[in-house]
Amino acid sequence: MKKFMNSVDDILDESLRGFVLAHEDLVVLHTGPTYVSRLGAPARGKVALVSGGGSGHEPLHAGFVGYGMLDAACPGQVFTSPTPGQMLEAAQAVDGGSGVLFIVKNFAGDVMNFEMAAEMYASEQATILVNDDVATDDESLRRGVAGTLVVEKIVGGAAQAGASLAECHALGVQVNQRTRSMGVALTSCTVPAVGKPTFDIGEDEMEMGVGIHGEKGRRREKLAPADDIARQMVAAIIEDLKPASGGQALLLVNGFGGTPLMELTLMYDAARRSLGGTGVEVVRSLVGNYVTSLDMAGCSFTLSLLDDEMLRYWDAPVHTPALRWGR
Amino acid sequence: MKKFMNSVDDILDESLRGFVLAHEDLVVLHTGPTYVSRLGAPARGKVALVSGGGSGHEPLHAGFVGYGMLDAACPGQVFTSPTPGQMLEAAQAVDGGSGVLFIVKNFAGDVMNFEMAAEMYASEQATILVNDDVATDDESLRRGVAGTLVVEKIVGGAAQAGASLAECHALGVQVNQRTRSMGVALTSCTVPAVGKPTFDIGEDEMEMGVGIHGEKGRRREKLAPADDIARQMVAAIIEDLKPASGGQALLLVNGFGGTPLMELTLMYDAARRSLGGTGVEVVRSLVGNYVTSLDMAGCSFTLSLLDDEMLRYWDAPVHTPALRWGR
Predict the structure, then answer these.
(1) Same-domain pairing of B161 and B109
(2) Is the pTM higher than 0.90?
(3) Does residue A64 lie in a domain region?
(4) Same-domain pairing of A164 and A240
(5) For residue B225, which residues of chain A lie inside 8 Å, CB to CB?
(6) Chain A nearest-CA residue for B19
(7) Is A169 one of the annotated active-site residues of the chain?
(8) Is A25 within 8 Å of chain B by CB?
(9) CB-based contact, A176 to chain B, within 8 Å
(10) Residue that finishes a domain, picked among B158, B178, B198
(11) Distance from CA of A303 to the nearest CA of B (A)
């Protein structure tokens, strides 16, 4: 295992400390329990957005804390759910009196712990479950992956504009329903505490439909040209999403941590060509490492069919460590 | 070699096409010869900044084209200098009547070709040579690495604010003199046309002082804890930069493409601790993959001692694919 680290036990603390130190104009680190909150939180009169999940997916979620997006993020250990205690403390700290909206990726541990936190939370709250990964056929098992970023940005825009908790919740549910993702891995990730790759994969193989923790995908295949990979991923998304012709979409090409930008923009080009003839019109784009899997080489495509209101909230100013525009 | 690609010959064209397609609100792609220009260029009355170099370092340079930074970037093939023809065409296209400033990394091919372009250029022009890498003792051989970003941002801010060609040139020369970088690799990169890693490196080794093309560093060493690596890199920079006590600095922790953000923020934390006692006060930070080496795992530290004017230009609005704030 080759990683920049001092000891396996200190990775999370040290990387979080560095993250917050590098962005101290935007976020604050709390310990005992651990969470990251927006500088100046709570924002009075604004619905507070709280997310979180296992670490190893940086910049998700703490990188999206700030103006126009999340109010707090609760990082668990690597690929491990945060505790209800973290979520509860974070919610209490950032609640500005208009309620708390939990945004939760559909993984058993996250769902269970956020449910527990929501039950224990004394004030107004609601939860959005994100499950955009089409790699799994069984919808109840669908994982929340890179589409989470889209939900967090659009609902964050609405909350910043003064939408109520019920409005933010309804909007988030809708965005999730209009969002699908599909990923592929060229290499495994290596969990620091394990010290060896999560799965073995040959020099001429790829894992199609991989999850963001290196979960098994749809099938192991021979490594294919970029265009073939893009076609497969776009087809899986389109089959499931069934977009009406003329639909406006956001296309996110997301890297898993070990794949450089040059390959991601090449995959973006391939995705755009694969979308020709589907009737989908790409009107917004994002390319980069946003929802990662430690050092895994690979990428995912996310397609979100957005109406005009959603596009407005996507475009709305955001000022976070990992997404920043319009302000 | 595991890369997202269709064929080695098409990598650059396809990744550039995808890059520009994803950022068509900011940049325009020209072919025959190839360069990327700022949408709406030339900007009348503004000094035009033109940079470029081999590809494989994305987002450098094309990712820094836009408001408040570069007016054009000339990408060569992977790790190969662009031609004088590309530079000349780009310069002519973006010259707004106030002259062209070439920003050149100190590599023999880049220097030679930019010199040729400058000689052939009929209008007012000047060149800034960036050579921030302290890994090489011989100053004439010092490579231009991640510090190039700092020069491009600060001079870009000055040009946007209306500084003259002579002022932009003098400022860039000063910023370069106040900027030092040092890098370390955990793995080699793989050049697509070669198909195998540039260098062999053991599972327990690192290459201290590596260049951004996988050039040999100061020495091959046993892989060390993050704090030891950070101490070595900071020491190399400080020895060379000899900062006065109380100096204000920008600290950039830059990933080489294959290292995830979690490790980069951990290294940022280590760098900050290593800077304790040097008298340098870190007042600005940037952490991420900005000047990469294809898929190489590793990172570099860049320290820039900035005066108040330079800090103002660093903070000035920038609106490019890879750096965006304040607007």
Answers:
(1) yes
(2) yes
(3) yes
(4) no
(5) 5-7
(6) A265
(7) no
(8) no
(9) no
(10) B178
(11) 14
Whether residue A1 lies inside any domain: the answer is: no
Angstrom distance (rounded) from CA B203 to CA B215: 19
Number of domains in chain A: 2
State whether B89 and B152 are in the same domain.
Answer: yes
Domain at B298, CATH number: 3.30.1180.20
- Is B299 an 8 Å CB contact of chain A? yes
Residue B322: which residues within 8 A CB-CB, separation 6 or more?
A: B59, B63, B64, B290
Cβ atoms of residues B29 and B50 within 8 Å: no
pLDDT-derived band of residue A114, with 50, 70 and 90 as boundaries?
very high
Per the annotation, the verdict on A213 as an active-site residue is yes
Instruction: Report pLDDT for B327.
Output: 62
Domain encompassing residue A217? 179-314
Question: B2 and A297 in contact by Cβ < 8 A?
Answer: yes
Give me the mean pLDDT over the B316-321 stretch: 98
Same domain flag for A169 and A184: no
Q: Does B212 touch chain A (CB under 8 A)?
A: no
A270–B19 CB contact, under 8 Å: no
- CB distance A93 to A71 below 8 Å: no
Domain limit, last residue, from A137, A157, A178 = A178
A203 touches chain B (CB under 8 A): yes
Q: What is the pLDDT of residue A327?
A: 61
pLDDT digits (tens, 9 = 90+) for A180-221: 999 999 999 999 999 999 999 999 999 999 999 999 889 999
Answer yes or no: are the C-beta atoms of B18 and B6 closer than 8 Å.
no
CB B129 within 8 Å of CB B289: no
Does B183 share its domain with B173? Answer: no
**Do residues B217 and B185 touch, judged by C-beta distance below 8 A?**
yes
B269 has a chain A CB within 8 A of its CB: yes
Tell me the CA distances in angstroms from B82 to B15, B35, B132, B232, one per residue in order: 16, 9, 21, 34
Same-domain pairing of B87 and B45: yes
Residue of B nearest to A298 (CA): B4
Q: Determine, yes or no, domain membership for A65.
A: yes
B230 and B301 housed in the same domain: yes
Q: Residue type at B319?
A: H
Identified catalytic residue from A23, A57, A61, A169: A57
- How far is Cα A18 from Cα A250, in angstroms, rounded to an integer? 31
Residues of B carrying an active site annotation? 57, 213
Domain match, A162 and A112 both = yes
Task: Return the SS3 of B152.
Answer: helix
* A137 is a domain residue: yes
- Quick one: tokens of A36? 């990251």
Report how far residue B253's alpha carbon sits from residue B271's, in angstroms, rounded to the nearest whole number: 8
Q: β-pairing, A100-105 with A125-130?
A: parallel
* Token pair of A81 as six digits: 């759910």
Which domain CATH number covers B79? 3.40.50.10440
pLDDT of residue A141: 85
Residues in A closer than 8 angstroms to B2, CB to CB, are: 186-187, 203, 206, 223, 297
